[in-house]
Write a structure and sequence with these properties.
alpha/beta, Spore Coat Polysaccharide Biosynthesis Protein SpsA, Chain A, 38% helix
């Protein structure tokens, strides 16, 4: 492993046996082709009870850039992302969902925008095309995104896409709360950073079952939405600081 880590890919997983190892290999292949040696891959196990951890650990000899970090108990996707960012060595973080539905082949598109973007660019967010989910989940997501856009005014059509790239320093400045991964776009904008969007692919789940239901996500989402509205109102904007 080189110490010159530029990109850290963070993947939170829970009970993703049959998906996680194949996803790790895919990510490694894409990054090895686009930026060899300048990356690491962190899988954050969030209390899996299946063979997810064993399958990932078996890849360590094959993929020396792979790191496996365990919570020991289930703490949620947002905590998994946060743990990964805290342990990451790279200045740029890429997040993906652990079910394999985000296509690693889209990662270079996000990174390219960072290389071409302004200094204000804090995040590049993927927006899924042709989602491979159930009709009920797609409709619930469309409705939820519409309510969120109207309430928060962030112009994002797909905040639920797990494929994002964000500067590590920007992420660590954000206020943390459980489920914050659904509001990263708004929170980054709140700190006066630019957010760009890029269309990405979406794949059917290969193994296992989704960890989210329609109604449980909706109920939690309403209280979170009100909390983010409060956070926006209680922020006076970034400080223009200088050392005297």
């Amino acid at each position: 492993m080189t110490n010159n880590i530029a990109v850290s890919v963070v993947v939170p997983v829970k009970d993703e046996a049959g998906n996680a190892a194949a996803l790790a290999r895919e990510i490694a292949g894409v990054l090895q082709a686009s930026r060899p040696g300048a990356h690491e891959i962190l899988f954050i196990d969030d209390g899996s009870t299946d063979s997810t951890v064993a399958e990932l650990m078996a890849l360590r000899a094959e993929l020396p850039q792979l790191r496996v970090i365990s919570h020991g108990r289930n703490l949620g996707q947002s905590r998994g992302v946060r743990t990964g960012v805290q342990h990451a060595r790279g200045g740029l973080i890429v997040t993906l969902d652990g079910d394999g539905q985000n296509d690693p082949a889209d990662i270079p598109k996000l990174l390219a925008l960072f290389e071409q973007g302004s200094q204000r660019l804090g995040m590049v967010a993927g927006q899924r095309l042709k989602r491979q989910d159930t009709w009920r989940k797609r409709m619930a997501s469309r409705y939820g995104n519409a309510v969120r856009r109207w309430t928060l005014g962030d112009d994002a059509r797909d905040t639920g896409c797990g494929l994002k790239a964000i500067r590590r320093d920007v992420y660590l400045d954000l206020p943390y709360f459980d489920h914050m991964h659904r509001y990263l776009i708004t929170l980054v904008m709140r700190e006066n950073h630019e957010v760009q969007f890029v269309d990405v692919g979406h794949r059917a789940r290969g193994a296992g079952i989704s960890k989210y239901g329609v109604w449980d996500r909706a109920l939690v989402g309403m209280s979170d939405l009100l909390g983010v509205v409060w956070l926006k109102r209680r922020f006076r904007g970034p400080a223009d600081t200088k050392e005297l």
